[in-house]
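Summary for the steering committee. One of the milestones for this cycle was to obtain a three-dimensional model of the protein with alpha-L-arabinofuranose bound, which we needed before selecting residues for the alanine scan. The sequence and ligand used are listed below.
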Amino acid sequence: MSSLLRIFSDDPIATIDPRLYGSFIEHLGRCVYTGIYEPGHPASDAAGWRTDVLDLVRPLHVPIVRYPGGNFVSAYDWEDGVGPRSKRPRRLDFAWASTETNQVGTNEFMDWCKLAGTTSMMAVNLGTRGLDAARALLEYCNHPRDSKYSDLRRSHGYADPHNVRVWCLGNEMDGPWQTGHKTALEYGRLAAETARAFRQFDPTLELVACGSSGAFMITFPEWDREVLEHTYDSVDAISLHLYLGRYEHSLADYLASAVTLENQINAIVATCDYVQARGRHKKPMALSFDEWNVWDMKKGPANPPGMVRWSEAQPQVEQIYTFADALLFAGLMLGLIRHSKRVRMACLAQLVNVIAPIMTRPGGAAWRQPIYWIYLHGSLHGRGDLVETRMSGTPVTETKNHGASPDLDTVVTRNGDQLTVFALNRGAGAHPLELRLDGAVCWKMVAHELLSSTDLEATNSPESPSTVAPRKIGLTPVSADGHLTLRLSAYSWHCIRLIATV
Ligand code: AHR
């Protein structure tokens, strides 16, 4: 029996904010140094930016990139990273036990954003520093001229302000691992005061308060409630973070674990709505899922064997992704799109080398990991509106941790006269999926890209960069009454595009 997906293409549920496809660059491991920046590399430009990496970043159309951390930001003195490079200090980064050379800082990052065709989401240090350093950075970045910090920026060769629109008020401040970790009361007050000061400067900035570091925290979601009680009217969004790894779980459990992202979103939406109702606030709170990815800390350890503490740009938090990882990644991305009514921004953590879709070798090649392709499909085609769908008859797989998990997952988006159907089969068997296109428009399939592999452990490498890569498959005609049936092979990801014919 086939599963049925009814698609109500005239019924938008939400307009997807393009920033749902954001990413993240942290001063961690080889994300910046030997990732995006490597002077002397044969592919680097005169400024030291790796153009082979830029060539892989640009097609992703990443709308926004969070910077400079992550855990790194909570002890970062932004002043160390501006001005003449020869005068910038080498500093110990306690969070990652490395040495930060400060050869890349705020201004260079803004240069890179321009080259990559993206914008910045800046995080401020509310761990070891606070409101005063944050407001100085804001003035440095966004004020045109004739003030202490804007003139400092101009003296560093940046006449025009960077005009950063989105600011994260700290990072994972609920986590005891965070330098300058705070209680919800301490952080909530600090975030509220910082937000108010930022609003005095420019009421149109978008401000994100730190929610829980994850649903695993014992303080989840009470932390979020308390922080929101302090900040509700002063911020635009609260952050969520989630990393999922295979560890010792069965494949079925691993792939089914995508549901935890949606559970986390639902819990935080409920928390936000409770605080909204209790405080008689007008706006619903938006969510910024500003760190998400597949990360198995055993496969991508922060302290890999042989790591030398306090050295530069070591291979920390690097995970070689398998095809199975890409299937879970797809499930997470579908969950984000499905909740795009509330999730305004999301950042794939991270972009290069550190749990990343793009990998590099120092002095050597850059290549795409399997997750790159899913991210590309989402970012390119998951724009416009999320449309109403109804799925019936999906087969299920019984799992130990997540009960009966549906094998098929789908999301449909519409951008004007283009309709995209994303379909994931995380089950061990092939399944027919019937699409029924309801609505006033007739549709024609124009592309069907498939990511599949008989080897769930397949990976890419510089020697074999396309072992896991999508391929175009034959188009299925849509009947006059809007039906078509697809065969979703076992363990497969599909990006199907249709255009309106009338
Ligand atoms: O993305 C890696 C790390 O994970 C970030 O620095 C931190 O915010 C999170 O715990």
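Key point for the committee: The chain has two domains: 3-10+386-501, 11-385.
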